[in-house]
glycogen phosphorylase
Amino acid sequence: MKAVRRFTVRAHLPEPLRALGTLATNLRWTWHPPTQDLFASISPRAWATVKGDPLRLLGEVRAERLEQLARDENFLSQTRALDDDLRRYLTEQRWYQRRQEELGDLPAAVAYFSMEFGVTEALPNYSGGLGVLAGDHLKACSDLGVPLVAVGLLYRSGYFRQSLSPDGWQVEHYPLIDPRALPLEQLTDAEGAPVLVRVAMPRGRVLRARIWQARVGRVPLLLLDTDLPENEPELRGITDRLYGGDQDHRIQQEILAGIGGMRAVRAYCQLTGHPQPEVFHTNEGHAGFLGLERIRELTEQEGLDFDQTLAAVRAGTVFTTHTPVPAGIDRYRVDMVRHYFGDGGDHDLLPGVSTRRVLALGAEDNPNMFNMANMGLRLAQRANGVSQLHGRVLRDMFRGQWPGFDAEEVPITSVTNGVHGPTWSAREINRLFGDADSALEHASRLRGVEPITDALLWEIRCTLRERLVAEVRRRLRDAWLHRGASELELDWTESVFDPDVLTIGFARRVPTYKRLTLMLRDPDRLRSILLDPDRPVQLVVAGKSHPADEGGKALIQQVVRFADDPEVRHRIVFLPGYDMSLARYLYWGCDVWLNNPLRPLEACGTSGMKAALNGGLNLSVRDGWWDEFQDGRNGWSIPTADGVTDPRRRDDLEASALYRLLTDEVTPLFYERREDGVPTRWMSMVRHTLTTLGPRVQASRMVREYVEGCYLPAARSAGTMSADDYRGAREVAGFRSRVEAAWPEVRVLDSDLSYDGESVPLLGAEVTVTSRVELAGLTDEDVMVQAVVGRVDEDGELHEVVTADMRRTEDGSFRGEVVLPHAGATGYTVRVLPRHGLLTEPAELGLVVLAG
Ligand SMILES: *Cc1c(COP(=O)(O)O)cnc(C)c1O
């Protein structure tokens, strides 16, 4: 494989400095301060102009300086040491390899699909939280040694850069990105020719994409790019922008990411000898078409029918959804999907795969729509949300797909998101725990914070706040210049914010549910909080609105107008251009991180975790991750008016709760000082946050949960399905069709509950349930007959149930014993479920027959 960029770099890099090329192109530098320091030392000034991007730096530095460094023994030995360190990092045994020795059947490789990746601002390929999470996932996988191959698209204009018009309206810019200027290499074959992925498009056209590879530590990230002269002009633009364009554009991108992405992973593994993945992780429904390409592969290579391939594909697929509301789900018109997949005419996107069956996978209530989340669930045996609360929301939201089951039984679990510690915590904090090399060590060393004094911790917090204040002033000035102000009228920006004032941050994308403007609900109240003479507060706000969301832009404008007011502008700012580089200053420097979404619409939220890693205290609605991680000592929970349906009233109630918390609890605690100026009680919350939340919010914790709870069982299931010429897949498919055919006739004919002794049974007594069941040709081995007992409400609904398996008795009926779990009104029922050793959950096939 040839490094496209290396040509440029090599031309300028004297031989002794060759290793700099490697260090600059492997993105591990983004979380490795010693490597950053090495580049900074080449030219601190240029380092600042290129915003800390090593590759750009090498392009900027003058040849004489490089010649000089090539003779500088000290610099050369540092470079060698870092090069050796990187090599060691890339090859040594890490956590995954050790676990593999213990467990033996971890997957040889995992493929990870996502429409966006936020690894670094030097590779702007993300819009917000979803992408940054994917980036953190890759970094943690790298640190842990997880053999992951990631795949997505390379957007020629990334998302967009944000600036403000004079009247505070969001303005979008789409800078064109030259992949050759990015830390990417083109994937080429043995002859040096670019590897192209091909995907069939309607009207006999072929879409081609080349593959750019980024190296995220140990993890290869493959990005598909359609901007090729060989492509028809319309098709060339498919990878132009992230989340831009119409439905057609979007489905083309998703077809490319899923189907083309799968082909890219195959090509990459073949060329490089990387093991082929056994497990396929779909990060959000957008990339879900990958499962269809795998169905095509198996149909073609193994001669399996659709149902058999589906069983095999499901076993190895993990689907993570981040959406808590139906409105957030990607849906397409059925005729559009048919258009792209082919409908029996000349065009066939996936030869051998029936478009009718594809459409059934995405079916939903509306027969005209194709639902990507439903397809994701049907193509994956394991599905999860991204916090415990979100898992509950999802089980409720998708329960329609499992009729007859209670929400708790819906087979969707949760893995709470995490963030990559070495990326997001400030050096000063990292240093406290020793320079942690990996997220894993980082997590464990955070526990060592106890002997560090309050005074030292406070000093660090003050340094970080000061750094943020300087950055706020710099960016505010730039923003005003951009809005058309003259240098002469901007002196005031030099004194906005105060390094000693309690600093609150609020930064996120601006969909309505995040309620950017909740803080403005009562502008006078906010003004008085900001301007309090004894206990002032300063508020830094940032966020991007989707370009098509005029409502979101109006919210931004409201904040900007409020913050423009000369009376308060030294205490509140809106900073345009929210991205990873701005985010870092905010997470480092804010004392309090504010989050006030409309509960429960925040699937997880991760910015508060990043603040916590730096000793920031969260002030948040109990939504997403905070609902399970808040403990009363690591921050404050804003009470919510759940159930109040009038949104204005709800905002009023929650805003006033927020103001009250700020004035009665947060501010007094921050300004309560010892003689030496240290806020002791505040610092005990900071310490508690660092020591207890620090390890739990790590992406390394999240990735270990994915590995042990999802990837490992998926690899096992997939292995069972494919062994012996796909015997398992054939069996499951045969079982499924037999059961589905018989199911309409399966009945619980009658049932009875009996107990010994007393006329009213006692709590804890054992009762016997008997029932006669019509199995319609299925055998006792095919089904599970269960007694279900629980509390019964006025509508006859059962709650808090316990279940007991029933067995066939001599007289042909089924019988089981249950210990009564509750006192009071109790009910029972009997149900029949399909049973097969290769199903993971009783509800997996969505089939159940209930008594009555
Ligand atoms: C972490 C992060 C996000 C996500 O934050 P949420 O709390 O999930 O809204 C968005 N953008 C950037 C740049 C981030 O670093």
User: Anything to note?
Assistant: The CA atoms of residues 323 and 603 lie 6 Å apart.
